[in-house]
Amino acid sequence: MAVVLKSIDELLKKMVEKTASDLHLAVGSPPTLRIDGKLIPLDVQPLSHQELQEMVYSILNFSQREELEKQKELDFSYSVPGLSRFRGNALYQRGTMGAVFRAIPQRPLTLQELGFANLESFCKKPRGLVLVTGPTGSGKSTTLAGMIDYINENEAVHIVTIEDPIEFLHRNKKSIIRQRELGTDTLAFPNALKHVLRQDPDVILVGEMRDLETIGLAITAAETGHLVFATLHTTGAAQTIDRIIDVFPPYQQQQVRVQLSGIIEGVISQTLLPRASGSGRICAMEIMVATPAIRNLIREGKTAQMQSMIQTGGQFGMVSLDMSLKGLVQKEIVTFEEALAKAANQDEFRKLLGR
Fold this sequence. Notes:
Distance between the termini: 48 Å
CATH topology of the largest domain: Rossmann fold
CATH architecture of the largest domain: 3-Layer(aba) Sandwich
CATH superfamily of the largest domain: P-loop containing nucleotide triphosphate hydrolases
Number of strands: 13
Oligomer: single chain
Structural class: alpha/beta
Number of domains: 2
Strand content: 15-25%
């Protein structure tokens, strides 16, 4: 017989106990967990619209409820003392309430713990733009948190983050960190970016480059001598560069190419795959480092040639997605079939592994 759970906290506790990454709540369906990338329903009684609405409203403040009712969707963060922090999204679908929660570790994992020591070089840059890209749920926030933590541990600088919502909580170590949340501490990414330059920052993290104005301001911040980290929902370095340029009107695109070629320091594109053991997931990562040759391709609008440079740029710290996947298959960390499904070029990937 299905269990009846009446509070969000009870469901979130189940989520943490089962080491799930996400909790999905929808009317008429049992609460569902995402474990190692797969959706698994809990043996819990399906929720009615009223029950789910009461659950969600119980953890929102008055202004958040107002925004949800007005906009029909809301991003927010939520903490359960002694358990964990969560990133939440409440929404309406077919006139009924829905919600998704993602578990956030109590502290950011270090780059060493993540196995991403090769990203430390980006953290040591004095200025420029570093982009972490990938689909939703690919671990971008975890990677960025690790990079910010590395700077915090090793540099005495002023770091300002603009997030929607704040996920990982950083405490001051060598650096001073100011974390600003959309809706609570600032009204919009562009507003925060316009004023951040007067706050004496050394490092700026932009949670997401969503629109032309935010992208333009992030480029300006990098041009004026700041180290800027940001995310985009793109796959691969070439697509990321094209996406940024295409946001601008045609008459501005050549100017943006020139600007971008001067400030870009690297693009890290990642995706998660289930481990061959059946327990947990692992990250495959493409890394583009902005060498003079890469900068020239961006300036001249020849991003299609970027992939071959990444494939042959190992001495500069570059790694193609397919080479990253090849390493995981050869170490038997992931299966060939899972890696093939994520490969940038499936025919080339088969050749890489002689299959």
